[in-house]
Design goal:
With 400 residues, the protein is α/β, with parallel strands linked by helices. The chain has 2 domains: 97 residues, Urease, subunit C, domain 1 (Roll), CATH 2.30.40.10; 290 residues, Alpha-Beta Barrel (TIM Barrel). The protein has 11 helices and 22 strands. Strands 5, 8, 9, 10, 11, 12, 13, 14 and 15 form a 9-stranded parallel beta sheet that branches. A hairpin with a 2-residue loop joins strand 16 and strand 17. The longest helix is centred in the first third of the chain and has 15 residues.
Amino acid sequence: MARVRRMFCAQKLITPEESISNGALLSENSNILAVGGISGFRRESGIEVFDFPNAYITPGFIDTHIHGAGGFDCSAVADSINPFSSMCEILCSRGVTGFFPTVVADKKENMLANLEHLVNEMRRPSKGAEAIGINIEGPFLNPGKCGAQPAEFLSDIDTGFARELLSAGGGLVKLMTFAPELENADKLIELLCENGVMPSMGHSCADEVSALRAVDAGARYCTHLFNGMSPLHQRDIGLIGIALTDRRVTVEMIIDGIHIHPRIVDLVCRCKRVNRLIGISDGTMASGMPNGVYSIGPARIVVRDGFSQTEEGVLAGSSAMLDTGWHSLMSCGHLSENDAAQSVTANPARVFGFDDRGVLLPTRRTDLAVFENDTNRVLMTVRGGEIVYQAEEMATKDGK
């Protein structure tokens, strides 16, 4: 393989372990060689240099809960209006380098067939963001907290069916949501842990006892905290109270500015250690698309001016993406830019075992996003050393 060296220079690098003013990152092929102040780098012949004097660089974003984008529905692969590549392309234009296609409950045969289609798509080379795992949200959910998922497709926990889902997922399943109050939750947790899948509590009416029993059994993750679960109560804390106060539990939070009130964002950021917080989009096929009628698997959704709802008015995923949402962790949650960036980069990488990415450090993958200072618009996205998105005439190059 021919050696390709690139240097990316910006007003600031958010590593996110620290912020480096007037920083530079040197990469060779798919890996980072060096990161630091720009004064420590030489513009040698053979190095392709990209200068971004009015921009900042972060690690590439990782969205671990997204149902679709660009007209592609992860729960209806064969019937989507646009191909899987459309989702990959639009995500990389928003700074996302890795994501988990997320599927919802449907008829058993539909779920299994769809997972096989999805695996085939994921194994094809992609020019945009990379699908690095599968997230299964259902069918072992509480019908009382089904959200936008049709209740008729939810079921009691069936470990045989769960094994079929994991098999159809071809070893790519990283996360499965279940309601911990359902019978046989402990058996499902054991099965998931044995197969390297994160058991995640959600769409639930669990009380304190059920939630703690699941955590003790190995469920250390909570799906879109506050959404799809019984509200916090002063005498019956339930799943929300356990997720907020148990240090073993990592929580994900939808950061689209619609699903959660700004003061709830602040509450979560005050309660949870920053390394236990993951920001997600919960995006649907409507992300990056105009107003209209779309779907999440068997459910129809209507999107108007950023609101994604069922025809009955129930919130149904989101049409936002992480490039806009992560700033709410600073403006509402009062996190530092490093901690906010960590929630959409380093944390999901670490929690799900992708130790080669999520931070800008030597030997890690060259996954990064460049944002314009004033607009926070994505100027460039690099995945594994390959430039997968570049805004026109925004970067200057030399040393070619």
